[in-house]
Structures are given as C-alpha cells and as structure tokens.
Specification:
alpha/beta; Rossmann fold; NAD(P)-bd_dom_sf; EC 1.1.1.1
Length: 117
C-alpha cells in the first residue's frame, strides 16, 4: 500500500465507509493501514482472502473496491471480493490485459483514462 492506497484508506474512513479493509503483502504496511483507519488489513497472498472479506463484512462482501497496484492478480482479487452490483475502481492499470471472468455479477463501465510517460 503506497501513497495512493494510503490516501484511499484515509478518504474511505473520512466518508464513513464501514468496514475499511486494506490489502498488502508487507506486515508493516498492513499495520500502518490499521493506524491510518483501516478496520482490517489482510495479506493479499492469503489463500482464504475471500473468506476473510466475507467474515469482515458479515457475508455481504465489498460494495466498492479500489485497486491501486495495476496488477492483473490484484484486479481479479478485488473483483472476486465484490458484492453483486459492487464497484471496482482501478487506479493505474498497467499494460496487462484484464479479462473478466464471466461468473462475476457485474458490468464494466470505463469512466475515464489517461496516460503519461
């Protein structure tokens, strides 16, 4: 969780999102996320990640997820943790093509994009 993720956690807390869940592979970063207002901080490599999100949300899953890493694996993890009709905001997708699994209960809408070198 870099600078963008840190701001996402703080803004989510500020607007009253509950629960705020952060994901990172680094234990120190997860601890920082908790200090900044996250209710939970999970290791994104955890094989039981979806189950932990379900437990943290009383089975509802996520209404909104943000992926600020730009990696296909984290994008797909975020999709997998959404509730039906949930929204995924992808910040900084890389050149990796993301192919949505047809079992996801969502529709895709590209709101905007920009690139810089």
């Amino acid at each position: 969780m870099g600078g963008v993720g840190t701001h996402i956690v703080q803004l989510a807390r500020l607007v009253g999102a509950v629960p705020v869940i952060a994901f990172d592979i680094n234990p120190a970063v997860r601890e920082r996320a908790l200090e900044l207002g996250a209710d939970y901080a999970f290791d994104s490599r955890d094989e039981n990640l979806k189950e932990k999100v379900a437990e943290a949300t009383d089975g509802r899953m996520l209404d909104v997820a943000f992926d600020a890493t730009g990696l296909k694996v984290t994008f797909e993890q975020a999709l997998d943790c959404l509730t039906v009709g949930g929204r995924l905001v992808a910040v900084g997708l890389s050149t990796v093509d993301v192919v949505a699994n047809t079992s996801y209960h969502c529709r895709f809408m590209r709101i905007g994009e920009a690139a810089a070198t």
